[in-house]
Amino acid sequence: MMNQIFHKKRQKLFTLFCQAVIVVGSFIMANAIRYDGVLPAEQLSVVNALLLPLVLIKLSSFIVTRLLSSWWRYVSIHDLVALVKANLLGSLLFLGYLNYFSEVTVLPSILFIDGLLCFLIMSGARVAIRLVREYSLAANRAIKNGTEKILIVGSGATGQSIARDISQNPHQKRRVVGFVDQDIDRIRQRFEGIPVLSSVDGMDELLQSQPIDLVILANPTLCHKELRKIVMTCQSRGVKSKILPNIDEILNGDVSIRHLRDIKFSDLLGRPPVHLDVKNIRNYLGGKRVMVTGAAGSIGQEICQQAAEFGASSLILFDNAETPLFNIERNLRKAFPNTVIIPSLSDVRDFHQVNHVFQSYRPEVVFHAAAYKHVPMSEKNPIAAIENNVLGTSILVNAAHNFKVDHFVMVSTDKAVNPTNIMGASKRAAEIYAQALSRQSETSIVTVRFGNVLGSNGSVVPIFREQIEKGGPVTVTDPETTRFFMTIPEAVQLVLQAGSMGQGGEIFILNMGEQVKILHLAEELIRLSGMIPYEDIDIVFSGLRPGEKLHEELLLGSEGVIPTDHEKICVANSVSKNLDELDQWLAHLTEACHSMNERSVVNILKTLVPEYHQERNGRKVSPGSTRLIKPKVLEIPVNVAKLA
């Protein structure tokens, strides 16, 4: 530590000495130029008399404007502007000294030439030292074994910044060999001394002819189709690829090589990530008591995290899974020490537990994310699924109504639309009940409906990754199966947004674009793992499981859509049912569940959700059969379809 401090002080003293030499030299040269190289004796005495105050004044101005740091390593437009300001300040202060504190007279032309020379020599020295340093580093990297050769996609400001960062770091065994760019007019131009070798369309030939180790995607204007094409080109040539995150991920920091990350599947999702307008969220979450059911689940954890970030005064973590609840409580306490964290090991199916929690903690905002979500498990255990998803929701939403909660937001699913399975039908029944109660409640009760969430517990992506890590095969139910996909942050932003927008009774839907084929998703994940589908990893069909659809929907046939102030969100125009009749049917459903009469439970569910049918939607595939798919090139659809 002491050595570092001593080194920095010595470096600043050396810089100060160099600047003093330049100041003295500039003033002497300015006088010599003014007098054609021959200084009169009287002018020589003037120079001698003014050198000391000139040096003190100008060095003081350099110190004030912070020119003592980064003297020989960097030079940019910003540095040159700083040099102009420092020299102008020094010249003005010296002129003030001559007018008010000195009896010596200096011609204005000498002062002008002196300031100009001082700036030119200082900036020239910086440029020369940087050039020598960078050429020296480049030469050293060129002769080192194992130097990583890099190609940058995008020669704009971002790409140039990455190239500059690499060239200025002497410890990196990396060398940028060139750029590629969408703009063909840039080909053969040089930026940061590095040529633009090709257009994006010519990347395949370039990677074939040049020994490239890494491709960095640094062009923020690349669409997802182009991005996917570049990644697949790199993979076909055995070249690694990394991407620069968007500005939200960098958190307004300088663009640097340290921000590079591996390309994720969400980068290739087929549509731009949805960033919702969250400016109103703080108004209804800030300083509020927030309760999250299913708090230990994937969605629940993200809701807790974002609610705390938006300033919730306390978080009631409601979940019946002990270990996951323990983990999320510990993580939140560490991340948000000023937020009151209240873990409640409770079950939404237990009327007394639910009411005790509401009575004890008086939540003002409730996010209901507790549900049984796995289709095959719900098909095998319909009573448990219906008790949790239907009866549990009715208990919870009634508690919110009775204790006058401000906002109640229920998380639903696209599987609730024309359901073909117990899970979807149970969620639709919960939607119906929440809408019916909202018509008689002062609580704003709304529902949020979205599709599959990338990376959530038990979702298809983690399962595929686990299968890939084990060497395959990757199991796909049917080659034509499609699903809507979104990321966990997108899903939670929609949930939080709905709470701020809802008046009561709405079902909010996110414009999720077109559905993605599960087969294409499996192929992309295999490629992102550095392997080739059908060669390194097999893909097999298992057949549609009971209750599964080929294609999901976001709207019922009877539902229209109403636009909202946010272009990516609309409201399903559903008609609410009579609450008294629903309460009677729920009483019958409760009795059937308690008596474990599975047939009666399912029949009552069909009454509550008339559109529920248990037939498979799509071609029949024998369960358990497997077959290898013939190799072929497929793409994920990329068009974003509007719901309205």
Report on this structure.
The protein has 644 residues and is of the alpha/beta class. It folds into 3 domains: 126 residues, no CATH class; 119 residues, Rossmann fold (3-Layer(aba) Sandwich), CATH 3.40.50.720; 328 residues, NAD(P)-binding Rossmann-like Domain (Rossmann fold). The chain contains 20 helices and 22 strands. The strands form 5 sheets. Strands 10-9-8-11-12-13-18-22-21 form a 9-stranded mixed beta sheet, with helices on both faces. A 7-stranded mixed beta sheet has the order 3-4-2-1-5-6-7, with helices on both faces. The protein has a two-stranded parallel sheet with strand order 14-17. It starts with a helix and ends in a 36-residue tail after the last helix. The C terminus is likely disordered.
CATH architecture tag of the largest domain: 3-Layer(aba) Sandwich
- Beta-strand percentage? 5-15%
Major pleated sheet: 9 strands, mixed
Number of helices: 20
Helicity range: 40-55%
- Low-confidence segments, given as residue ranges, are 247-259, 616-644
Structural class by sheet pairing and helices:
alpha/beta
Taking all Cα atoms into account, the compactness measure Rg is: 34 Å
- The neighbouring-strand order within the major sheet is 10-9-8-11-12-13-18-22-21
Overall shape: it is elongated
CATH class call of the largest domain: Alpha Beta
CATH topology label of the largest domain:
Rossmann fold
Q: What is the strand tally?
A: 22
Into how many domains do the coordinates divide?
3
Arithmetic mean of pLDDT: 78
Name the CATH homologous superfamily of the largest domain.
NAD(P)-binding Rossmann-like Domain
Between the first and last Cα atoms, what is the distance in angstroms?
64 Å
